[in-house]
Design goal:
Blueprint: H1 2-5, H2 9-17, H3 19-33, H4 39-42, E1 52-53, E2 56-57, H5 97-109, H6 120-149, H7 158-168, H8 172-199, H9 204-225, H10 227-240, E3 251-256, H11 262-269, E4 287-293, E5 296-302, H12 316-327, E6 331-336, H13 346-359, E7 365-369, H14 393-401, E8 407-408, H15 417-437, H16 443-448
Parallel strand pairs: 3-5, 3-6, 6-7, 7-8
Antiparallel strand pairs: 1-2, 4-5
Helix pairs in contact: 2-3, 5-6, 6-8, 6-9, 7-12, 8-9, 8-10
Length: 449
């Protein structure tokens, strides 16, 4: 009744003739006279942010963190995160420089001028500028991808940092990456310069000449500096071929002087198939094999031999062995050749052994005397001549029987191999229990102590 009494005569007539039209006018007048909402009323108002993604609106909850990156200041950024082992297997596939150049040139030639340009000169300079821009980007973008995908050495695991230094040489990795980045910057500079010149051409002939000049200049840049891409390809092949080490899997590392029989034992104990020859430094890198005991998988590592000298005089092969022991949690199987057939005398082997045993004394340890078929009745057939006049009692005992509690084995006659396998099983099982319980030796601390 309040509504009926408040209506004017003209409103009565409108209501009687067209109720729907009256209702619309009533709503409009009510909305226009309503007070604006206050700040307090806005507090409970819920809003949603929907950024444009590929020409459609999506709520931000559906956008992944990688799609929306919130920039942070350098002060708020945390310290760099160190990579876990396995970074080498994530390296990208690098194209040879000639293939990269040919692919970029082929794709750029397919670029057409913008439609609707009637003037021949304008159309030709538009085509030339676009082709040079496409050529530049097809060259620079893969180079940028390589720079982003190859990890910085300081972020790698210490073991992998050592592999890079000892395999490639100190500074070679950073040097090649620097050359690739310099090539990328040169390509961008030359490409932008000649694309700009082509866009300013006054005739069709001039635009064609500027396009040819730009292509020739980029080709010259790649001829002069493209070898950096091929160097990066070689580095990727070398690093990708490195054995993968699982830190959560027990590892047995075979150590000893060169040619004492480590590789033969690796073939017996695991799936590794190292080269076996009768000369020093047969093992020219780290070889990883696996052994399965009671349905449990373990790692067995063959390492290059160690000679009697200080660390500063060791070659890169010997340093690879020390890198494995220093940076990886592993049990040690130390191999001795008392016959001297390996070329290293027993006294020198003893001194190497004492040094390594003292440096890594907290590791689980197995001593093995190999080639026992040549040690007839305890009287070794000596192949390496040495002066025994000043021998200490400890060295005399070592020359006869090796270290205390050492396993005497022969791959040729299979003497002692079953006992050695049982002991390896016990050591690796113990190592597995240490890993599961979280009680593990920090190799870097052991090595530096």
């Amino acid at each position: 009744m309040k509504l009926a009494s408040s209506l004017f005569p003209n409103q009565w007539r409108l209501l009687a003739s067209s109720p729907q039209l009256y209702l619309q006018s009533f709503i409009f007048s009510t909305a226009s006279t309503a007070k604006s909402p206050t700040l307090r009323q806005y507090r409970n108002l819920q809003t949603g942010v929907s950024p444009v993604v590929t020409s459609s609106y999506l709520p931000t909850s559906y956008i992944t963190q990688k799609q929306i990156e919130i920039p942070t200041s350098p002060e708020k950024q945390g310290p760099p995160v160190q990579e876990s082992l396995g970074a080498f297997q994530k390296l990208p596939m690098v194209m040879p420089s000639i293939d990269l150049y040919s692919s970029a040139l082929r794709k750029s030639k397919r670029v057409q001028p913008t439609k609707g340009i009637a003037n021949i000169a304008k159309r030709e300079r538009n085509r030339g500028a676009k082709q040079l821009d496409a050529f530049m980007k097809e060259l620079a973008l893969p180079l940028k991808g390589y720079m982003e995908s190859f990890p910085r050495r300081r972020l790698l695991h210490p073991y992998e940092r050592s592999l890079i230094e000892l395999t490639l040489g100190d500074g070679k990795y950073e040097e090649v990456l620097g050359k690739v980045d310099a090539l990328r910057k040169k390509v961008l500079s030359v490409g932008k310069e000649h694309a700009s010149l082509c866009a300013k051409a006054l005739s069709k002939r001039e635009a064609e000449d500027r396009l040819s000049e730009g292509v020739e200049k980029l080709e010259l840049v790649f001829q002069q500096e493209g070898s950096a891409v091929d160097d990066l390809l070689s580095i990727a092949k070398v690093l990708r071929a490195m054995p993968v080490v699982d830190l959560e899997m027990p590892t047995l590392c075979l150590v000893g002087a060169p040619n004492v029989g480590k590789s033969s034992l690796v073939r017996i104990l695991s799936t590794g198939k190292p080269e076996i020859c009768n000369y020093p430094f047969t093992t020219r890198g780290i070889l990883m094999g696996h052994v399965i005991l009671n349905y449990q998988r373990f790692q067995v590592t063959d390492t290059p031999g160690l000679l009697r000298r200080c660390d500063e005089d060791r070659n890169n092969l010997e340093k690879l062995t020390l890198a494995v022991l220093t940076h990886l949690p592993t049990a040690v199987l130390y191999v001795h050749d008392l016959t001297g057939e390996c070329g290293t005398s027993p006294s020198d082997q003893f001194r190497i052994y004492k040094e390594i045993k003292e440096r890594f004394k907290d590791y689980l340890w197995i001593d093995v005397v190999s080639k026992c078929d040549l040690l007839g009745g305890g009287s070794p057939v000596m192949y390496a001549k040495e002066d025994r006049s000043n021998d200490e009692e400890e060295i005399i005992k070592y020359r006869e029987t090796g270290p205390d509690e050492a396993f005497h084995v022969s791959v040729k006659t299979e003497q002692g191999l079953s006992e050695l396998k049982s002991r390896v099983k016990e050591v690796l099982s113990t190592e597995m229990e240490k890993i599961k319980s979280g009680v593990r030796v920090d190799p870097s601390v052991v090595a530096s102590s």
